[in-house]
Amino acid sequence: MHWLRVVYNLAILISALVAAGAQALSDDRIVPNKPILLLSNSELGQANVFLATSQSLLSNYPSAEVHYASFPSISGAVSAASHRVSTSAGARPITFHPLNGTTYVDKIAEQGFQVRDLPHRPGLLGAATALKNAATLLLPWTGPEHVDIYEDIRRVIESVDPGLVVVDSMFAPAHDAVLQTQVKHVVLAPNSMRDFIFTEQPQGEALWKFPVMGSAFPYPLPWHLIPSNFLIWARMFSTIISSFYFGRINELTAYRKSHGIQDPVDLLHPIMDTSTMLVASSPQIEYPMVIPPNVLPCGPIVSQPEPLSAVDPDLASWLASCPTVLVNLGSHAEYDFEKVQRFARLAIYVLARSDVQVLWKIDRSTADFPSDVLHGLEHDITHRRLRIVDWIPGDVSSLLDSGRIICAVHHGGASSFHESLAAGVPQVVLPIWLDTYDYAVQAEWLGVGVWGNRGNAPLVHEDELTDAVLKVICDHEEGRSIRQKAKEVAAGFSRPGRDVAAEYIFRALRSEENQFTSSGRDTTVRDEL
């Protein structure tokens, strides 16, 4: 199953990058000898779990010295997360180390790829088509660029001399750096646990039992979809194997070897073999599967929200007046003229057929937002039942944790899915590519939400979307069941995932030496949580 593992590990990079135990004992607060270094991509989809975990480290272990290395574009978010917690906890601020090089998103844009080019239909043809440019999307940096970033990360590691490195599951140059320097490390990932361990399942279950990413097939796979599932795997295999032997992955491997990096470009598996992986998921929300001993499910890893009343008192007062539907499609979902019109009609229909209010987050400076698109909504805007904002103050979690959001409409990103789960908020998911389809299917499988564009994905139709929202918010048996199930799932998380991850990291830092099993995996601290 080695090649199957390679192929799937490579596939999860596309979605992740395009597009995020017991109470600590008092002796855990002893000052550790060496700092913790966090290494992540700068895209928030990956970095949000690092920001949340860093906040927990500062809050719960103020003696810890935390450093963060990434591209400069995320420095503001790191500074804000650090300032918010360190000033109240008495911890020292996070030290940020800017990395040289081009970010992932900027690099794929240089090569002609735009977010609007990435959405695809679900199913066999859609998922297979999405892999057409897999190699470029997976590894956008050239050999010299990759090695330059790798060497810059090595410089930071040598300068900081960390006792433990926490590395982004999807940051390939950082993988090379921690493996080559043999520094003690753990891996942190915002994704579903299944993305990393499907290929570890017995009897080849990845092929015949679990739906492949982007297919939107149900779990467990019905017999008639097994051939399609297998064909998507075959498409992945042929695309990646071609690049391994003849394309950019082959070129990258050769260049890395010429600079002393001998490990193959397997991207995830070598680093999983030598570390514990912390994932922002838990068995209670995943399909039943065998969890390898080096994988620690933390539960949703989301930032500790500030009270909304402190962040935006006016918005908090408005939310308190009525149950609210939140429409927030995330930074990767682009609005064209037709999409703006469809969401405006959604607001009209939902407001006319229910007693809720609607909060619609849309950046009108980048969307095709004509002045007359709100025709028919003037009364609701005047009477404050519809509120349109260009950005959400603070964290989305501040809204979700307010207790006033009755339904969250989002695009199905890992962060949005887990934030809603953690807050106990029912969701309407509008997937557009790869793993967003997986989260739409998972929301329905869990009973906590509805796939809101099943008949039109990756597009949206206002009639189908309105029916999905009303199904969640209306006072009938199905709606009550969804809302109750969302609360039950949230109640099942005994601790915030950020605290579980932070405690593992701090305990691993304080252990005097790596404690590996015969397979090379660090499990001692994991077993204590």
Secondary structure blueprint with pairings:
Elements: H1 2-18, E1 36-39, H2 44-60, E2 66-70, H3 75-89, E3 95-98, H4 104-110, H5 123-129, H6 134-138, H7 143-160, E4 164-168, H8 172-181, E5 185-189, H9 194-197, H10 205-208, H11 226-246, H12 248-258, H13 269-273, E6 277-279, E7 295-297, H14 308-311, H15 313-320, E8 324-328, H16 337-352, E9 357-361, H17 378-382, E10 386-389, H18 396-400, E11 405-410, H19 414-423, E12 427-429, H20 434-446, E13 449-451, H21 462-473, H22 477-491, H23 497-510, H24 524-528
Parallel strand pairs: 1-2, 1-4, 2-3, 4-5, 5-6, 6-7, 8-9, 8-11, 9-10, 11-12, 12-13
Helix pairs in contact: 1-11, 2-3, 2-23, 5-11, 7-8, 7-12, 11-12, 16-21, 21-22
Query: Which second-level CATH architecture of the largest domain applies?
Result: 3-Layer(aba) Sandwich
Derived from helix and strand composition plus strand pairing, the structural class reads alpha/beta
Mean pLDDT figure: 87
Total domain modules = 2
Low-confidence stretches: 20-29, 513-522
Strand order of the largest sheet: 3-2-1-4-5-6-7
Approximately how much helix is present in the residues? Answer: 40-55%
The total strand number stands at 13
Count of helix runs: 24
Name the beta content range. 5-15%
- CATH topology value of the largest domain: Rossmann fold
What distance lies between the first and last C-alpha atoms, to the nearest angstrom?
Answer: 30 Å
CATH class of the largest domain: Alpha Beta
- The radius of gyration is 23 Å
